[in-house]
């Protein structure tokens, strides 16, 4: 688990923690922005909607592969 919460990455710090923090912040910012649209769409649903609307994925299997999700 990452316990560093500084705004910058210093040499020797774990890049995985920095990427995890960035992803968490981006997700929170997207959810906040999407909440104001009144659509009920969350950040976790945006990837699926983009893949379908742009014709990149056409089936649940393709969506799972593109989103690196277990189709289970």
Quick gist of this model?
By secondary structure, this protein is mostly helical.
What does this structure look like?
It is a single chain. By secondary structure, this protein is mainly α. It is built from three helices and no strands. The chain has two domains: 1-39; 42-72, no CATH class.
Secondary structure layout plus pairing:
Elements: H1 15-35, H2 43-53, H3 60-66
Q: So how many helices?
A: 3
The ordered H/E elements are: HHH
Number of domains: 2
Oligomer: single chain
Estimate the mean pLDDT confidence: 84
Which terms would index this structure?
72 residues; mainly alpha; 54% helix; 0% strand
């Amino acid at each position: 688990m990452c316990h560093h919460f500084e705004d910058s990455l210093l040499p020797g710090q774990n890049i995985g923690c920095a990427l995890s923090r960035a992803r968490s912040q981006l997700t929170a910012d997207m959810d906040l922005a999407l909440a104001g649209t009144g659509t009920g769409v969350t950040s976790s649903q945006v990837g699926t909607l983009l893949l379908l609307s742009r014709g990149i994925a056409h089936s649940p299997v393709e969506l799972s592969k593109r989103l690196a999700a277990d189709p289970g």
